[in-house]
Amino acid sequence: MVTMANDDDLRYVPHLGLALGGGGALGAAHVGVMQVLHERGIIPEVITGTSAGSIAGGATALGLNPYALEDRIYEWGWQSFGTWTPKPGFGLMTHDGLARGVINVAGTDPNIEDLPIRFGAVATDIEAREAVVIDHGSLTEAVAASIAVPGVFRPVHIEGRSLLDGGLVQNLPIEACFGLGADHVIAVRLAAEWDLRGFGNGFEVHEWEIRSDVTVITPRVGKHSQWVIKGLPDLVQAGREAAEAEFRDYPVINPRPPRPRIDTSVAPSGQSDAAASPTATPDLEDQQEDRERTPARRRISGLLRRR
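Request: output the structure for the sequence above.
Response:
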């Protein structure tokens, strides 16, 4: 075991931050990372999340432990976050399902400023085309705005702004985490920056990633698709393996509780692949490594250009 000076030991950083990136269904890997942090006594005081990262981060800030969160994600589908609506509008789903989920966990829809951990969800102001860090008000509305994939979810209106998915401008919310007071940030990258014309610049985010006070963890998600809710246990394990490799010099002080064996061959709750994702197509899974050419990205680009 390597002995670390306190300055290098993240367990002793005064205001440790955790920035959880977007990535749709790949967000299950965040759960594995957070389990390893818990087991090694690395406790963040500030959490920011973009899109899927806001779900995992919000649940953690709410007080849900990473093992209970793992149990819950195996029951989730797209209907856990939204409700299909036949009414015309900029998006197919409202965020009613997300509100029900938060209330099931917390008994109410808490205000972010009342949570035990400092938290911020990153969304995109679609008029100003800039990042908005939502660190107060309704937790449900904040997460709903952060996950509002254009064309899938309706925009969320908060304090006079029309907000969509934070991945449009900041898919890895390191800057937001420092902005909320973090002294060092553990950043979990699941997917590349969107780099849509007129929105965020991936180079700017990369400049934050290479700082000496940032520790980047990149789980190996392989050919798993952002758009298909399938193989979640494998993604949790990928998150664990990436974090264990990064923090191998830290002793385990909170042993992992025994976990039941999960069948990784089926989608959650017996859903078919088609039912598990409103936008799943064979092309999306086959072209996972070439996101610039996926049909979903082309649809999103077209929708935003029309605004």
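The mean pLDDT is 81.
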